[in-house]
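Retro notes, item 3 of 5
We never archived the inputs for the adenosine-5'-diphosphate complex last cycle. Fixing that now. Sequence and ligand:
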Amino acid sequence: MKILFACSEAAPFVKTGGLGDVAGSLPSALAANGNEVIAVLPRYKIMDEKYQIKMQKVAEMVFLFNNEEEKSEIYLLEEKGVKFYFVGSEKYFKGNTYYENEDMDIQFAFYTKAVLEMVQTINFKPDIIHCNDWHTGLIPWVYNRLYKNRDFYRNIKTVYTIHNLQYQGVYIDRIMEMLDIKNYAGYVNFMKEGIENSDIITTVSPTYVEEIQTDYFGVGLSTILRRRNHRLYGILNGIDTDFFNPETDKFIYKNYSFETLKNKEENKLKFQEESGIKIDETIPMVGMVTRLASQKGIDIVMCVLEEMLKDEMQFVLLGSGEKQYEEYFLYLKNKYPEKVSVKIGYDSVTANRIYAASDIFLMPSLFEPCGLSQMISMRYGTVPVVRETGGLNDTVKSYNEITGEGNGFTFKYYNAHDMMYTVRRAIDFYKNKKEIWSVIIKREMLGDYTWKHSAMEYEKIYKKL
Ligand code: ADP
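Structure as it came back at the time:
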């Protein structure tokens, strides 16, 4: 099949979170199964130089946008069997951040048009256009209204994947006229249009697909999702197991596998040394690598972290996001210099070092569509403590002392003391039940986090269409 994957970010070129991971690895898994896959991203001005230099300009196109003839250039980079196209323009995507600017609605309206025009320009007629998250939500809608009856465009099917229902792209309408769509009144909700107009909707875990159909998790769209639930599927994400591999990872201090687990300890010692906390391999280290947003459960961490720090443990965090959270963690680092390490920012090297160095990985999310960090931590033999929601519920099973099953520790309610109790339970196993601890680690490290199974599920959906 010929598949066009539309996304606002894709690792390694552009990544701000899990969507970047997914768009960087699912297309190549689909290509490995014999499909012809292209991915289309905006050409952001701030993309890393090393990729900008490698890109080749392959075409130029001119189309009508906002009643003007707009020129757009198409650049190409190939990676792991996938052609990544970047659509650029003199006017758009020139900001100094990927997402934080006032004209996001106009930029992604322009991108919508550029993606649809591009397929004809490069003569790639897809069987499927697979859209991802709000930035691409207008593509199915504009396709249905303006393109599907044109000769070149007939019989293209659209799939829309919700990676996070919280970010919907809601704007007072000023773009529909630009796209030549008349009589559209009021607000534009990019994600809603994606959900309403695509042939199939998917989201990124079996639990989240149930959750978003409830009013509590539905962020205002649960009614529409319930109405379309005969076309709604939950497919769990995988991770890039080549990039996230403790045996070959170039970012970490010492490579290791399950057989050479002693080397994992060296990562801990070196991390302690470099971050200035107490150097002692016996102290349980609890890590977090996260966006600092309320979704990630930061509020309940703040409720009890000082109480937890009365025990012998260390807390290491890498994150960036909301100011009040950043300030809190920096304050805590100052107060407990031997026990707490905090780095504010986005940094893939430190991220992998934390996955490798920590004993326990904390992810107490309020909601979590899929979550990749818990899978990455398991791949690095770092035991996750998670809340039972979304993809966390599908990937981490709490250790059960009666049956001996489980690959981590979980708690059900969004409650700070439940979380604290669960971290303490994990620390107790780490310190006092070492044999069980190493069984859990082995299970994790041998787990399958590849895209193999999920790519097949997506293919089934494409074929159905
Ligand atoms: P989300 O997409 O909601 O942020 P996920 O768990 O799905 O959460 O994916 C997060 C991805 O982003 C993981 O690869 C994680 O390691 C990475 N990440 C999150 N915060 C940072 C950070 N501050 N620096 C580097 N990588 C980060």
